[in-house]
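Worked Example 4.2. Consider the chain below.
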Amino acid sequence: MTMIEGIDPSAPPSGAGCVECEEDGGWWVHLRRCTQCGHIGCCDTSPAQHATKHARSADHPIIRSFEPGESWFWDYRTEQLLESGPSLAPPEHHPEDQTVPGPSDRVPSDWQAHIHY
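Applying the procedure from the previous section yields the following structure tokens:
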């Protein structure tokens, strides 16, 4: 297997939800997985944008979607979408019964007014 800087295929995901949102009672639209350490963060559409904040603060350049049915990667260094990449340690996405946005008990009824486009 060819090693790609910024990707550790053996790093398991940190959990089923955004690490910081879980800690502070927040919510997310979609989830992203750091391919270097497995940190799960919320996407840039989400109010807190934790995946990008993690990538910048930790200098971990590549994320992968953590959504069921999605396997794309994003490289912050080049700002390019990568359609595919190596298989990562399971699970490859959050539980299929997890709501989007989620978690359902923390998503406000006016959630669309809080997201970034």
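The longest helix spans residues 50-58. The domain at 31-86 is CATH 3.30.40.10 (Herpes Virus-1). Compare this with Example 4.1 before moving on.
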